[in-house]
Amino acid sequence: GHDWGASVSWWVALKYPDRVRKLAILNVPHPKVMARNLFTNQRQMEKSWYIFYFQLPGAVEKFGSAHNYAWPVRLLATTSRPGAFTPEELEEYRKAFAQPGAFSAMVNWYRAMIQTQPEPLQSFDVVMPMILMWGEDDVAMLAEMADQSMAYCKQGRLIKFPGVSHWIQHEEADRVNALIEELFIA
C-alpha cells in the first residue's frame, strides 16, 4: 500500500497477522512511529501541517475545490519529480477529486486519524515478511521514520530511494514493481 493504502495495510497486518502473509509498504511509517513523530517531533509536525488544517470542517473542501481542484492537482505536480505525472494523469486526478463527495472522503481519512483511537492491539510488531520502500525526498514524511519503523518489523527489509519523492510508485514504477514481485513470489 501507498499513502492511506499503506496506513490501512499496516493496521490490517497488525490486527490480523494470521490473514496477511506478506506486506509491501510505500513511504508511510509504522503507525507507532507516525504517531510518536507527529506529536513529538517538531520537524515532522511542520511537514504534517496539512493534517491539522484538514481538521477544519469544510475549510479544506472549499479551498481544495476552488478553481476546479487546482490546489490538490498542483500538489501532485510540485511534490513529485518533474514528469512523474503526465498532464493526462493530472487531469484524471482532477476528475476523481471532482466526483461528488470524493474530496471530502479523502480528507476524512486525515480527520479520523486525529479524532479516533484504534482498538488496543496485543502487539505492534509486524511478524510477516515485509518490505518498506522509501523515497527519501518525501516532502510530507521524515526519512528517519523509515529507519524507526524497522524496529517493529521482525522480517522487514528497508529499501531507500535517494532523489525520489513521496510518489515513489510513479517515479520508480519498474523498480518498485520488481521489488514487490520479488517479495510476493519468494
* CATH C-level: Alpha Beta
Q: Would you tell me the overall average pLDDT?
A: 95
Provide the CATH architecture. Answer: 3-Layer(aba) Sandwich
Q: Would you give the CATH topology? A: Rossmann fold
- Helicity level: 40-55%
User: H/E order of the elements?
Assistant: HEHHHHHHEHEHH
N/C terminus separation: 19 Å
Structural class: alpha/beta
Largest sheet data? 3 strands, parallel
Widest sheet: strand ordering: 1-2-3
| Whole-number count of domains | 1
Low-pLDDT regions: none
Structure report:
The protein is an alpha/beta fold and 186 residues long. It has a single domain, classed as 3-Layer(aba) Sandwich (Rossmann fold), CATH 3.40.50.1820. Helices cover 55% and strands 12% of the residues. It has 10 helices and 3 strands, in the order H-E-H-H-H-H-H-H-E-H-E-H-H. The protein has a 3-stranded parallel β-sheet with strand order 1-2-3, with helices on both faces. Helix 8 links the parallel strand 2 and strand 3 (153-161). Helix 5 (59-78) runs antiparallel to helix 6 (87-98). The radius of gyration is 17 Å and the shape is globular. The two termini are 19 Å apart. The model has no long low-confidence stretch (mean pLDDT 95).
